[in-house]
Structure formats: structure tokens, C-alpha cells
């Protein structure tokens, strides 16, 4: 099915570009191009230009038989003059959107005759005196080599019942659409049966991109949108492993991520800082920190003081798990501090100078420090394990918080702290965040390619 989808996409692409590049296709595959245009695009020879070229051919035959000065040849020359004027006035090239070709023909005829009027140029060219004076063979050769091929590129395209040009590509496309529809329904039916909770609609939407293969863009007069089928075709080719598109996909992803990441980060960070500034300036943070009990305008969803519980959990963690592992370092620090204090005593210094027992004071200090720290640790742990001790600890923490709140309000530094914090956040925005876009995009792109090169070398 991937190959069939690719063939369909190639046909769609050819159909979309056929009219625009018809002359090129005529040079490459003339018979197929003519057959395709006549069968599916309603293209047929344009009558005025065909009659004009037939008249020129008739003139060539007449000159070959009776000469350029014969009455029959002069009659044909008069017909060519009339047809030339009619072509200039009516512009039969406009239907095929090839008015530029007619302008090129007129320019060549003006240059050939040496006049600024296209009509006068044609009238002079198809006259017996001009052709006789400048050589019949030379002038008819000019026409056949420079003018006739451009006349031959003109064509007429039929009009459909909807007013647009004839386009029967849907007669080809409909067979591919039916094939893709049958395949989509069969696969969706199988998936809906294989997975119990998957409906037929869900199975169809599972591979929603295949729906682009079912839309008759040509019948809807939207041929350019038919190129959207490149997406399901690319996915199918990648899934069938006929083409490996993973490197291309990775490059596209890295490109968009590197371009968007910095700007998105900047917007998010600026938004967070702005919200923090607003909360501080409006006094919401201060109110939340300093208000107590029912005075808070705060939504409590579980009836639990999270800060109190968190502080209790952290205290238990420190006492039961962290402090025991730090006890040797704490004892060493305390012993060092005690020895330094004792060294300042003259009696202690003299006692250390006694031979044989000079190191005894250090040993005693070590034992005292170890015993004191052990007893202190046991007291704290027992206080936490004891209900009364835990209650006293919580009361101590609560008292500490309340006292801090009271003293902060008494000293009147809240306004100053709010102003300083808001100014600090503004400085962060101005000095750091707003420089991200200019500095980090190039750095991210460079890092992206460095990482890509490393991953490619390691494969």
C-alpha cells in the first residue's frame, strides 16, 4: 500500500503541475502529454491559431506551385494579414493563460520589420513586396523557426458545467480513493475486533492522516490541497522501511525545539516573576505569612497544617537519621572547642606538662564531650518520642513563629522588604531573563549539532 500511495501522490503532483509545465512535458514525453491533456484536461487545438498556421502552410504550397507574385498567393497573403490583425485584437492566447507568448511573437515581428506597431509589422511581413525584396526563403524560414513554434504552444481548454476549466483527473483518483477506503475500513474493523475497548471510529482516527487519501480534492476543485497526501505517504514509506525518515524527523524536531525552547522559557519565567511581584506588591504574601488562625483568607482543602507537619517530619529525619551519621564530626568539633577553651587556663597548661600524664586531659575532654553529646542526643530523641516532649517541641516551634511574626510587624520592615523584593525580581528580569533570546538561541543550536554529531559517531 505504501507503493500505491506513492504512485497516487506522483499522479497528483503531475496533475497539479501539468498545465503550468505542459510545454516542458511536450518536449520530454510528447505523445503521453497530448493524450493526457486531451483525455483528462479537456485540451484541444485552438481554432484561430490552427487556422492561421494552416493558412501559412497553404501559402507555402501555393508559392511552390505558382510563385509569390501569383493572384492566388496574393489572396492568401491578404487572408494572413486579416487573420494577424484578428489575432492581435482578440488574443486567443488568453484562454490558455499564454498572453506572454503572444507578446513575444509581436516583439519578434516588430524587431524583424523595424517598426513600433505590431499590426503594421504583420501587415508588412505578409506582403508580396516585402517577401520579394527580403527573400521568400529567408523570411518564411524565420517564421517557421521563430514564430510558428510559439503559435503551436497555444491551446483551448474546455469549460466544465461549474464554470471552471475541464478537469477529469477525479476519474483516475477515484480508484485510488476506493482502494484506500477499503484498506482503512478493513484495518479499522480488525483493530476494533482485536482491542475490546476500541470502537470502529477510534480505530479510524487512530491513523487519521490516512483520511487525506480519501478526500477527492480534484473533484472539489482543490487540486493544490491534494499535495497534502505527502504526509500519509511519507508516514507509510517510513513504516514500511522503504525509506528511513527518522533522521529527517529528528532534525525537524531539534530545529523547532531549539527555536521555541528559549522563547517559551523566557515567557514562562517572566510570567512567574510577574506573578510573584504582583503577590508581593498586593500584600498577599505578607498577609499569608503574618496572619494566623481564622484571620487568613486561605483555602484549606484537608484541615491539616502542612507547614507544621513538614517541620515535624524534617525534625524527625534530622534527629533519627542525619544526626547519628554526623555524630563523629560533631564530637570532634566540640572536643576541639573545649580543648581550646581549656588551653587558655594556666592550671590546665601546667597539668599537661606533667610527664607521663600530659595526654590525660585530652582523653578526659574527649570522654566528656562524647558523653555530653550522647546524652543531649538521647534527650532530644526521647523528647520527640515522648508525647509530652513532642507537644513541648511543637509549642516551641509555634512560639518561635508567632514571636517572629509579631516582632517583624513591630519593627515595620514589611514595606521595605516588599519593595526590595519586587525591585530584586525586576532586576532579575532586566539583567538575566531578557538576555536569553539573544544569547541562548545560538548556543542551543550549536549544542544541538554537537550532540547530533556525537550520536552519529557513536552509532
Compile the SSE list and pairings.
Blueprint: H1 2-18, H2 22-28, H3 30-40, E1 43-44, H4 47-66, H5 71-90, H6 99-113, H7 118-125, H8 128-134, H9 136-152, E2 156-157, H10 170-194, H11 200-206, H12 230-239, H13 246-281, H14 284-290, H15 306-343, H16 346-352, H17 360-385, H18 387-411, H19 414-431, H20 436-458
Antiparallel strand pairs: 1-2
Polypeptide structure, described:
The protein has 459 residues and is mainly α. It has a domain of 150 residues. Strands 1-2 form a two-stranded antiparallel ribbon. Helix 5 runs antiparallel to helix 7 and helix 13 runs antiparallel to helix 20.
How do you describe this structure in short?
75% of the residues lie in helices and 1% in strands. It is built from 20 helices and two strands.
Mean pLDDT: 77
- State the total count of DSSP E strands: 2
Estimated share of beta-strand residues: under 5%
Question: How would you write the strand order of the largest sheet?
Answer: 1-2
Radius of gyration: 47 Å
Query: Fraction of residues in helices?
Result: over 70%
Low-confidence parts: none
| Biggest beta sheet attributes | 2 strands, antiparallel
Please identify the structural class as seen in this structure.
mainly alpha
Ends: how far apart? Answer: 31 Å
What gross morphology would you assign?
elongated
Amino acid at each position: 500500500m505504501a507503493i500505491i500511495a506513492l504512485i497516487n501522490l506522483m499522479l497528483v503532483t503531475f496533475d497539479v503541475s501539468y498545465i503550468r509545465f505542459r510545454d516542458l512535458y511536450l518536449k520530454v514525453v510528447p505523445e503521453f502529454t497530448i493524450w493526457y491533456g486531451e483525455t483528462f484536461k479537456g485540451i484541444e487545438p485552438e481554432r484561430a491559431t490552427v487556422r492561421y498556421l494552416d493558412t501559412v502552410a497553404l501559402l507555402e504550397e501555393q508559392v511552390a506551385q505558382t510563385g509569390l507574385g501569383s493572384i492566388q498567393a496574393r489572396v492568401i497573403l491578404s487572408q494572413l494579414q486579416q487573420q494577424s490583425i484578428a489575432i492581435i485584437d482578440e488574443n486567443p492566447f488568453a484562454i490558455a493563460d499564454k498572453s506572454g507568448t503572444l507578446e513575444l511573437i509581436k516583439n519578434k515581428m516588430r524587431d524583424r520589420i523595424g517598426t513600433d506597431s505590431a499590426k503594421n509589422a504583420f501587415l508588412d511581413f505578409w506582403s508580396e513586396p516585402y517577401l520579394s525584396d527580403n527573400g521568400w526563403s529567408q523570411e518564411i524560414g524565420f517564421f517557421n523557426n521563430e514564430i510558428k513554434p510559439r503559435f503551436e504552444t497555444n491551446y483551448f481548454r474546455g469549460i466544465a458545467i461549474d464554470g471552471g476549466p475541464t478537469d477529469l483527473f477525479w476519474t483516475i483518483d477515484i480508484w485510488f480513493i476506493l482502494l484506500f477506503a477499503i484498506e482503512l475500513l478493513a484495518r479499522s474493523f480488525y483493530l476494533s475486533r482485536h482491542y475490546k475497548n476500541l470502537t470502529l471510529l477510534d480505530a479510524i482516527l487512530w491513523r487519521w492522516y490516512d483520511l487525506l487519501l480519501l478526500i477527492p480534492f480534484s473533484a472539489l476543485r482543490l487540486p493544490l490541497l491534494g499535495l497534502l497526501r505527502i504526509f500519509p505517504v511519507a508516514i507509510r514509506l517510513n513504516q514500511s522501511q522503504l525509506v528511513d525518515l527518522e533522521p529527517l524527523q529528528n532534525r525537524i524536531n531539534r530545529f523547532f525545539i531549539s527555536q521555541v525552547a528559549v522563547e517559551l522559557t523566557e515567557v514562562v519565567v517572566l510570567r512567574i516573576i510577574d506573578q510573584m511581584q504582583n503577590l508581593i506588591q498586593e500584600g498577599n504574601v505578607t498577609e499569608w505569612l503574618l496572619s494566623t488562625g481564622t484571620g487568613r483568607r486561605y483555602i484549606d482543602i484537608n484541615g491539616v497544617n502542612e507547614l507544621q507537619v513538614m517541620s515535624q517530619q524534617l525534625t524527625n529525619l534530622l534527629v533519627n537519621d542525619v544526626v547519628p551519621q554526623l555524630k563523629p564530626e560533631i564530637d570532634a568539633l566540640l572536643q576541639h572547642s573545649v580543648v581550646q577553651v581549656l588551653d587558655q587556663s594556666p592550671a590546665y597548661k601546667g597539668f599537661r606538662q606533667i610527664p607521663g600524664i600530659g595526654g590525660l586531659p585530652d582523653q578526659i575532654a574527649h570522654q566528656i564531650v562524647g558523653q555530653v553529646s550522647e546524652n543531649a542526643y538521647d534527650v532530644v530523641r526521647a523528647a520527640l518520642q515522648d508525647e509530652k516532649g513532642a507537644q513541648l517541641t511543637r509549642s516551641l516551634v509555634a512560639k518561635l513563629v508567632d514571636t517572629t511574626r509579631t516582632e517583624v510587624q513591630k519593627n515595620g520592615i514589611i514595606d521595605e522588604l516588599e519593595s526590595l523584593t519586587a525591585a530584586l525580581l525586576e532586576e532579575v528580569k532586566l539583567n538575566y531573563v531578557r538576555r536569553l533570546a539573544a544569547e541562548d538561541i545560538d548556543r542551543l543550536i550549536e549544542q544541538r549539532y554537537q550532540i547530533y554529531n556525537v550520536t552519529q559517531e557513536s552509532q
